[in-house]
Every structure is written in C-alpha cells, then in structure tokens.
Specification:
The complex is a heterodimer of chains A (795) and B (272).
Chain A lengths: L1 H16 L15 E10 L5 E10 L9 E4 L11 H9 L3 E5 L19 H13 L6 E3 L2 E2 L1 E6 L1 H12 L3 E7 L5 H5 L7 H9 L13 H13 L4 H9 L12 E6 L7 H10 L4 E6 L10 H15 L12 E9 L6 E8 L10 E3 L6 E5 L35 E5 L7 E5 L2 E6 L3 E10 L5 E3 L5 E5 L2 E5 L3 E5 L4 E7 L12 E7 L3 E3 L15 H17 L19 E9 L5 E10 L4 E5 L6 H8 L7 E6 L2 E2 L10 E4 L11 H12 L8 H8 L3 H4 L8 H13 L5 E5 L7 H16 L3 E6 L2 H7 L2 E6 L2 E7 H5 L4 H10 L3
Parallel strand pairs in A: 3-4, 3-7, 7-8, 8-9, 9-10, 10-11, 28-33, 28-34, 31-32, 32-33
Antiparallel strand pairs in A: 1-2, 2-4, 5-6, 11-12, 13-25, 14-24, 15-23, 16-22, 17-21, 17-24, 18-19, 18-20, 18-23, 26-27, 26-29, 29-30, 34-35
Helix pairs in contact in A: 3-4, 14-16
Chain B lengths: L6 H9 L2 H24 L19 H13 L2 H20 L1 H6 L5 H35 L4 E2 L5 E2 L1 H18 L1 H13 L3 H19 L30 H27 L5
Antiparallel strand pairs in B: 1-2
Helix pairs in contact in B: 1-6, 2-6, 3-6, 4-6, 4-8, 4-9, 8-9, 8-10
Chain lengths: 795, 272
C-alpha cells in the first residue's frame, strides 16, 4: 500500500516537472489552442483578399515541433478536424486547422480546390506556420509540415504538395485524382452524387450559395444537360491532381472500399502519378458509409508523420499496400472484425490477372425512353450495407430487358479478386452502359459485389474496366458481369435505344496473392492459464507422504475392534468424544450405551471412516481405520438411519450397493440378508420411497449384513420396529454373534442392551464411564439404577 | 474384478432417477416444440431488417439444429450441465446413502472420480442429444439442404457437419466451468438445489457483469465471456481465436474448481 503511494507521488512529480500541463477530464494532457484569422491574397491576379478562420493547436511536450495542416471535407469546417487536431497535438505536432474559403466562418467563395484560389491560400498558411515560434523549420520560411484531410481536404493536400515543395509528407484520404472523371466518368454525369456535392453548400439566398459564380454556372449547365461542356471539363480538371505537377512528398493514400463517389481507381491513379514514396490503404468505409476504422487510420497517419516529419526511424511504416477485410463477427461484441492484409509493393489494379470464360451470347438490351425506370446499384450512403457482403435490407435492382449478363462457370475454389476486373465487349452502336460485377450463389441468389457500378461508353469493340474492389467469391459461386443501360445514380441517355451486346473475351480477374493478413494469435494467457491451473490443481491435491508402517498391528489381528485414546472435537468446539478406549473380542455382542449426545454416533462414524479423529486410533482386526480403508470391507454398518436411493426398489438398492462394493456377487449372501429384512417380494420390488420407517430400518440392517461381515455395527437398530420385530431382531443378533462374528449395538435404551448384549460400554459426555460384562455391571440390580448412578455421577 | 463403485453401477444408480429421465425427455421434446412453434408462427417478417439464425432456422434441418443450439446455449444447457454435476454428490448426502458408500468402502477420491465421470457423461449426452434430435426433427420438418448463414452464403452439408462437430465440441468444453463449479458446490453442500442453483447463479451473475461495458478487458476473465464463441465456426473461415480463449478459460477454471472439490472431499467430515 505504502509503495503505491510513493509511485503515485513520483508520477505526479514527473508531470509537474514536464511543463505543468493541466490534466483534462479524460486524463490526457489538455491541448492549448488559439483561434486566429489569417489574411490571404489569392485569385488569378493575386488581388483578392480573404480572411480564413483557423485554429492553431500548440504541440504538447515539445519546444519546436513539426506542423500538420488538417483540411476538412466538403461541407465541413475547421471544427470537423478538432478531434484529430488535438490527438496530433498531444503527439507533439503543431496543428493548424482552417475553414477553406467559402466554408465555415472563412470569407471568400468555393473554387473547388483551384490552383488559383485554395492552393494559394494553403501556401500562405504554410508561410504563416513558418513564423510560429513552436514550429520547427527546415530553412528560412520553410517549416517542417505535413498535410492530411479527407475528400475535399485530401485533394487540397495533394494539390498543395504538388505546387509547393515545402510540404514534407501528406495523408490524403477518400479523394480524387481527376474530378472530372469522378463526377462525369466516361462522360456520364454522376447526377446523384454531384447533386449532393453542390447543393449541400447552398445557403438558401441564391441557387449558387457560396460557390464561385463560374463554378456554379458550370454545375448548373452539366446538371441540366447531363453533358459536360469543354469549360466544365477544364474547370474540373484544373482542380485535380491529374493536371498538377507530380507530388514528390511521401504520400499515404487512404481510399474507401465503399466509395462510389471517389472509387479505388482514383487512389490508384494518384499512386501512379506520385514521384515520392507512396503507400496505399484500402479501408472498409468511404463516401458510401461503412466501418470508418478510425483507430486504425489515425494510427497509420501518426506513423506516417512520425517517420517523415519527426524523422523517427524506428517507426514501422505502413507497408506499400494495405487492404482491410471484413472477417467474422466478434462473438463477444457482435461487431464485425476487420483485419488488415498487407503487401510490400503496391501492384496496381491489374495484378496477376487470369481469365475466366464467360457464358452468354449476344444480347439485346433496351434503353427506356427518359432513362427510367432505372437500375439501382450504388447510392450515396448505402455502402454501409455492403460491408457484411450480401447482408443488406435494400437490394440492388436490375430492370428486366435493360441488362446484358455474362456469367462464369461455378468456381472450383474460392477466388479473391483484388483490383479492377476487365472484359472486352462489342456493341452494335455507341452505347452508354453501367458495368457491375455480381456474386451469384449456387442457389441463384445474386449480390452486387461491394455495390459498385461504373459507367462505360463503348462504340464497337472495347475493353472495359469493372469497378475496382477487394472481394472474395466462395467456391461454387459464379461471377457475373452485368451491363445495364440505366442506373439511378447517373444521367444516362434519355432517348429510347436498343443495343446488341456481346462479350468477346473472358473475364480477366486480377488478384494480389502477396496480400497476407497477419496470423491472429490468441493471447499468451491462453496457454499459460491452463498450465498454471494444472500446477495449482496438482499442488492442491498433493498429499503429504504418510507413514504406512503402523497401519497393521500383527498382535491385534484377531481383535475385531480396538479403540485407543480416541478424541474428536467438532469445529464448533464441542468435544464429542474424549479419550475413549475399549476393545471388543470375537463372538461378543457389545452394547454401547449412553444418553443422547454421549458421543456414541460420533464414535461409530469414526469407526466407518466418515469422520477424521483428532487423536487416538481405531483398529479393526489390527488394521488402522481411516477414510476408505480396505479393512472396512469386513465391517457392516447401520448408523443414524437408513440411506437408500428412493427411486430404486429395495432389492435394486441392495444389489447395486453390493455391486458398488466391488466384491463378487457370490459373496453377498443376499438371501440371508433379505431374510433378516423380512420383506415380501412385492415390497422388495417397490421403490424405497414408498416404504414405512420400519421397512426401511429392516432393509438397512439387511444391507449392513450383506456379505456377512465379521464386525457388525448397528446404531439404534430397533427404532421403528414393533415388539415382535424387536424380539426377532434380538434373536438375529445373538445368532449372528454365535457364529464367531462380533456385533456392536449402540443404544440409549437400557432394556435393549440388557437383553441383547453380553458386554456393555457406557458412555457419557464423550467419555467411557463403565465397561464390563452386563451381569457384572448390573450385579443383580436393574441396569437402569446402575446406569443412572453411573451417568448421574457426572452431572 | 473391477474396483469399488464401477462406472456402470453409478450410471444405473443415476439413470433411473426421475430427474435424469425428465431432463432427457425435455431435451428430446424441445426440438419438436420448436418445430411446432415455427409451423404455427409462419413466416414472420423481421422488423429490423437484420437476419439472425432464427430467420434462417426453417431453411433446413441443419439450420434448425443450429438455431436450437443457439437458443439453448445461454441457459438450457447450463442448467442441464449444472443439474447433472451439481446433484450427484449432494443428493447422495441428502439421502444418507453417501456414508454407506464410503463405508462400503469406496475410497473418497475414487468415489468422487467415478461420480464425476458419470455426471460429465450424462451432461455430454444431454449436450449431444439436443442437436441430434433437432437435426432429426428439423430434417423431417424442413428438409435436408445446405446450411444457410444469416450473414448470407451457404455451406455444403459435408462442411456443415464438420462445423457442427466443432460447435458441439466447443459447447462441451465451454460448459466445463459450469460443471466444475456445480461439482464443487455439490461436495460443499448437502443440498442438491443449492449446488445446481449456485452454478446457474454464477452464470447469471457472469452474464450480468459481461453487460457492464465499463469493465473493459476485465470481462475477458468472465467464465461466460466466450460462451457464444462457437458462432465463429459459422463464418466462411473458422475463426479460432475466440473459441481457443473460451476453451482455455473454461479449462483453467474447471481444473482449479475440480481440484478444490477433491481436496475438500478428502478432508471432509461426513456427518449427513
């Protein structure tokens, strides 16, 4: 106890010496932060002044720390990153979060991460950081700085690093490589996502909200026509890493497997464009929802920055390629377990492809007028449902007559597809199609793998890429390529059309065999605990080596019973037997006489090995008696009432009892014993619970006589018997002893002892008070007088 | 000649008890009651849209057996195991037959060992009888086909049999801790009800503590923490971690409790 106090005091002392931080409620050191407005100048002509709303988090426990710029996603503000900022600040980073122009309390209008606007803003934030005394500098005006952020914030990280060589490491997540490809893939407008994207920032005053007018006009044009103009195309491409210089800073690309807005191929293109070190992570979530894996991703982010910003060489960097996979459900929490598989190189989306033959000839499909009703595949927010594979309340929907389907044979063994499957198809005219990959179970149930669809435009023959994914197809399942003419999430052609579609190649499925999940080992205690328990059990059961000599006394081998100095005190302090000694000779019928509580029954229990004596010893035919001593086989006993299994008949009870002794059935002398019990055959066949007390009593005495033991001990044998039976019993006992056997009868009834026994031991309060032939003790007087005189002397 | 109290004798002594027969009768009847319930209830729509073992219980006999196992693991099997192991010594003490067995003489360690083997044997039979009868009842009622998992996907029947074997095997090992506690209580008390109730009570308390999320990882020490880990065998790839932890925990507790039971019984003054 004392030591713990000292340790506690020492811990407090260390904290106090380390700069005196205040402990916040959750026990972590509080992070000091300040809200600042940072003026920046941007625009194509560098003439627009804008104040950005920002928060600076001071690093905890460091004088000069590397800085991290945390950018927010579309629709968010600097507050969206407050939690992540505090966590990084506690890890010793100076963190700056800000609301991008047009968001939160920042001024300006949204320019979609334009190099003329947002990129210029962030470069000036880096200038600002370089002036902070807390921030470590690599050179004049060049702070050690990293950038991270999701989606919109991920793109600005990539773009800033592309245009500003001062950025030392970035962790962009769920973001685009080419915004035009993401919003208008294959020239098909992703209307549902784009609508959410653009209208989410309307402040209600004007249709354009906080967008730059040129951006707003571009969107409105595309949304109305479903077609991208050249200006729109250019504007979106300008806001893309695709048109920016290559990023040289180390880049950790985190992309979601449930993301129909910025699918995995966007991260793939970012990875291929980068010129610095790159690691790619595919996690379960994404814009469609799903498991966010916050803990794993913030851990990876910290590792990346610790290595490249702090220069901690011992940090284990994320491997080049990490794919998290939903495993089983944790049976304790009911949550799905997600494990990370890793590979040392990033292989791209077409690694180790093998071709599976496709069935399904040329098919005729319709595009309905107006493009409705449309098939349903990916919908914003629905991705969460796909995390458990096929589990999901909302089924994906394909409209009859609008799909061409091509199916593989059932798989011989399970197939893990990692990357973007490809197939060559032919159409008779220019066609806009939505390509999807289904998992068809043996029963025919088809599920859309990861709920992803990708639009393709084909005129004649072309190879198309299906959505990139990481998905396991089980043995016996089939892969099915579905090409549908409509999709609810996209603005497809509205004129009625009929296409003839055929597959001209097999389905090329990529995989990454190098991806291996670390073997999950159960904790060490799993092996240690049972071994420790085994040792504990052995220790608990170890016997002290007992001296075996003295267990048999040759001299008294012919003495049926010899008790010497026997003592027993019960745990409650009651001394039941006190220094009792007597012996019984062969052929005797000994009466053990005493009032209730004299210690007779306790003595008999010790005789049977049921109770451990505190002192003295009991020898039967020279053998010391203890629990389960083999010599007890020569003892037949009836003590303190009968003990039978109530559900068994009298005969079964006796037979099973004899079989339980393990002695040969022939030795049981069952017939003689049953004679003593004097029960009818009908009674013997009845369950014992139906017996009267007398019947049980007689059956118990019969049980004691089974095998005609050399020493028979009966405790109050005539209880519950009627006078003729008592008389019979008396004769039985006398006869029993006449055959050279010995009988001990314990009783509190004087008359019984007087009439049955030839020797008597009188006990009172645990001690022997008289011992001798009945005739001698009585000496012509009634036993009763003698008895009262004897025990009375002690009262 | 075999030693005292041969297993067969002890088995007969226990088998003819009404308690044993009623327990097995109930376990054999239960699957049919459930079949009837599914038949009467028809196809209920699941309100929360999530699938559970109950939703796919009627797809095949194998699925039905899994469902029966699922609904009985938490309590029915616990009570059954506690009954066989908790009753065995205490009831003999209650009938006073224990002292005559000991004076027969059956050495104490041997008596306890034989009783334990027979009690565990009956408990095992009970745990086996339920899924087997469910398989029979389910197959007759719902037909024989591949197993359908609530998370989607199916297993072919031959895989399913292997998985069922894993599940039943794990259930047996996981119940060891209940068996051991009931057995220890059976030695400590002369009241069969106390021994059985005590063991069941422990499971209830353990389940309650398991619900206290504030305990965090400490809950991994609770004997019932991994009682549903057998569900891990229903995943496309069997996940062993939970089952290994559960089995280890159960065996650990059981070894200590059994050792305590033997130690106590050796030194005990039998006064009943």
């Amino acid at each position: 106890m004392r030591r713990r106090w000292v340790a506690g005091a020492a811990a407090v002392g260390v904290l106090a010496a380390g700069g005196g931080y205040v402990l916040s409620g959750d026990g972590a050191p509080a992070v000091r932060q300040e809200t600042v407005r940072i003026p920046v100048v941007d625009g194509p002509k560098d003439d627009q002044k804008v104040a950005l709303d920002a928060t600076f988090y001071r690093p905890v426990g460091a004088e000069k720390a590397p800085a991290v710029l945390l950018a927010h996603g579309f629709g968010g503000s600097k507050d969206s990153q407050a939690g992540a900022a505090r966590r990084l600040a506690r890890q010793g980073y100076a963190v700056l979060t800000w609301s991008a122009r047009g968001f939160g309390r920042s001024e300006g209008q949204i320019a979609l991460n334009s190099p003329d606007y947002e990129v210029k803003d962030t470069r000036q934030l880096i200038d600002w950081l370089a002036k902070r005394p807390e921030v470590r500098l690599d050179g004049e005006g060049d702070p050690r700085v990293g950038m991270a952020g999701p989606s919109y914030g991920g793109a600005i990280s990539l773009l800033t690093a592309a245009y500003d060589g001062r950025v030392d490491a970035i962790v962009p997540s769920v973001t685009w490589h080419d915004l035009s490809q993401s919003l208008i893939p294959g020239g098909v407008f992703k209307k549902l996502w784009a609508g959410l994207f653009f209208t989410g920032e309307s402040d209600g005053s004007t249709a354009c909200g906080r967008f730059l007018p040129s951006v707003c006009e571009m969107y409105q044009e595309v949304a109305q026509t479903g077609r991208a103009t050249d200006e729109a195309w250019d504007l979106l491409r300008d806001s893309s890493p695709a048109t920016a210089p290559p990023v040289k800073a180390p880049t950790l690309l985190i992309q979601g497997q449930s993301d129909s807005l910025f699918p995995l191929d966007q991260a793939d293109q970012n990875a291929r464009a980068a010129e610095g070190p790159v690691s790619v992570v595919w996690f379960q979530g994404g814009h469609d929802g799903g498991e966010p894996e916050t803990e794993r991703l913030s851990g990876l982010t910290s590792d990346w920055f610790d290595h490249y910003l702090k220069g901690e060489q011992d940090v284990v960097l994320p491997p080049a390629f990490t794919v998290t996979r939903g495993g089983g459900v944790d049976s304790r929490s009911g949550r799905q377990e997600v494990a990370a598989a890793t590979a040392r190189t990033y292989p791209g989306l077409e690694n180790a492809a093998r071709e599976l033959p496709l069935e399904g000839g040329e098919q005729s499909v319709q595009n309905p007028a107006g493009g409705v009703p449309a098939s349903i595949s990916a919908l914003p927010g629905l991705g969460a449902l796909s995390t458990l594979g096929s589990l999901g309340g909302v089924p994906s929907l394909d409209m009859a007559g609008q799909n061409a389907t091509f199916t593989t044979e059932p798989l011989d063994s399970s197939l893990r597809v990692t990357g973007s499957p490809r197939v060559r198809i032919r159409t008779d005219r220019e066609a806009t199609l939505f390509a999807k990959l289904y998992d068809v179970a043996p029963g025919g149930r088809a599920t859309l793998a990861r709920r992803l669809a990708t639009p393709v435009r084909v005129d004649g023959e072309a190879e198309i890429a299906l959505p990139a994914l990481d998905y396991e197809f089980s043995r016996g399942h089939r892969l099915q390529v579905v090409l549908s003419t409509t999709d609810y999430g996209f603005a497809g052609p509205t004129e009625p059309l009929t296409y003839e579609i055929s597959a001209v190649s097999g389905l090329s499925v990529p995989s990454v065999p190098a991806l291996t999940a670390p073997v999950r080992r159960p904790p060490v205690w799993v092996w240690v605990a049972p071994a420790a328990a085994l040792a504990a059990a052995a220790a608990l059961l170890a016997r002290r080596p007992r001296k075996r000599d003295g267990d048999f006394d040759e001299a008294s081998a012919e003495v049926p019973l010899r008790i010497t100095g026997l003592t027993k005190t019960y745990r409650n302090g009651y001394k039941a037997v006190d220094d009792l000694s007597f012996r019984v000779e062969k052929g005797q019928v000994l009466g053990l006489l005493g009032p209730n509580g004299a210690g007779k029954t306790t003595t008999l229990r010790m005789l049977m090995g049921l109770i451990h004596p505190d002192g003295g010893e009991i020898r039967i035919f020279g053998h010391r008696v203890g629990p389960g001593a083999p010599v007890l086989a020569r003892l037949g006993s009836f003590v303190e009432g009968p003990g039978f299994l109530p559900h068994l008949s009298g005969r079964d009870n006796l037979e099973l009892y004899w079989r339980a002794t393990g002695r040969p059935a022939a030795d049981s002398r069952m017939a003689e014993a049953l004679e003593v019990a004097a029960l009818t055959d009908e009674a013997l066949a009845r369950p014992v619970r139906t017996y009267s007390q007398g019947m049980r009593q007689r059956l118990a005495i019969a049980q004691a006589m089974l095998g005609l033991p050399d020493l028979l001990v009966l405790d109050e044998p005539t209880n519950g018997l009627d006078p003729p039976q008592i008389r019979q019993m008396r004769e039985v006992l006398v006869r029993y002893a006449e055959r050279g056997r010995t009988v001990i009868v314990s009783s509190h009834l004087l008359s019984e002892v007087e009439q049955t026994c030839d020797r008597v031991v009188v006990m009172a309060r645990g001690r022997k008070v008289a011992d001798g032939p009945v005739a001698e003790i009585v000496g012509g007087r009634g036993l009763e007088d003698v008895f009262l005189e004897i025990i009375g002397s002690g009262t | 000649m075999s030693g005292p109290l041969p297993l067969r004798v002890e088995a007969v002594r226990q088998f003819r008890r009404r308690r044993t027969l009623v327990t097995f009768g109930l376990l054999l009847l239960l699957p049919w009651i459930l079949v009837l319930a599914f038949r009467l209830g028809g196809d209920g729509d699941d309100p929360d849209g999530r699938m559970s073992l109950a939703d796919v219980a009627t797809t095949s006999g194998l699925n039905f057996a899994l469902f029966t196992l699922f609904v009985s693991t938490g309590f029915l099997l616990v009570v059954t195991v506690a009954l066989f192991c908790g009753d065995t010594v205490a009831s003999e003490a209650g009938w006073s037959s224990l002292r005559y067995l000991l004076a027969a003489p059956v050495p104490r360690d041997r008596l306890l060992r034989q009783k334990l083997i027979v009690a565990l044997g009956y408990a095992t039979a009970a745990v086996l009888v339920l899924p087997l009868m469910s398989l029979l009842a389910g197959t007759l009622a719902f037909g024989w086909s591949d197993i359908t998992l609530p998370t989607g996907g199916t297993f072919p029947a031959e895989t399913a049999f292997g998985r069922m074997a894993i599940i039943v095997g794990y259930s047996l090992v996981a119940q060891l801790v209940v068996a051991a506690l009931a057995f220890l209580l059976s030695v400590l008390t002369d009241s069969p009800l106390g021994a059985v109730g005590g063991a069941v009570g422990l499971v209830i308390v353990s389940n309650m503590l398991d619900a206290v999320t504030a305990l965090g990882d400490w809950r991994d020490l609770l004997p019932t923490r991994f009682s549903y880990a057998w569900m891990d065998a229903l995943q496309p790839d069997v996940s062993w971690t939970g089952m290994i932890q559960g089995a280890s925990l159960s065996v650990t507790y059981a070894l200590v409790l059994f050792a305590l039971a033997f130690r106590r019984f050796r030194a005990k003054d039998v006064t009943s």
